[in-house]
Amino acid sequence: MAGMGAAHLLVPRPFDALVPERLPGRARTWTYLSGAAELACAAAVAHPRTRKAGALATAGLMAAVFPANIKMARDWRHRPLPLRAAAYGRLPLQAPLIAWALHVARKAD
After folding, report:
1. Which range of residues forms the domain containing residue 98?
2. Nearest Cα to 56, choosing from 41, 71, 67, 68?
3. How many CB atoms are closer than 10 A to CB 19?
4. How many domains does the chain have?
5. pLDDT beyond 80 at 37
6. Cβ atoms of residues 19 and 53 within 8 Å
7. Are 62 and 51 within 8 A, CB to CB?
8. Exposed end of the chain (fewer CB within 10 Å): N or C?
């Protein structure tokens, strides 16, 4: 989470293309907001006092960004096979990430 959050802020251009057009405002704003949210979630999960809330927020964030993963897969459907495979491979990986976050939240009790 921290690594991807930092990447959103340091190298935002690739993430801008993943922002669905139907969202209001500029793609860059959404890129920065999602990067900041990932950093906040990572920090919250890292600290025992905020771990449960951070893990639940992480699960919510992973669900919220799923439309961007769908957009990426759709946009990359004509790219070379390795890139297509990466884009499509992200889709089913979202479920274990959400499950992990929920597991962390349960264990934090």
Report:
1. 2-107
2. 41
3. 21
4. 1
5. yes
6. no
7. no
8. C
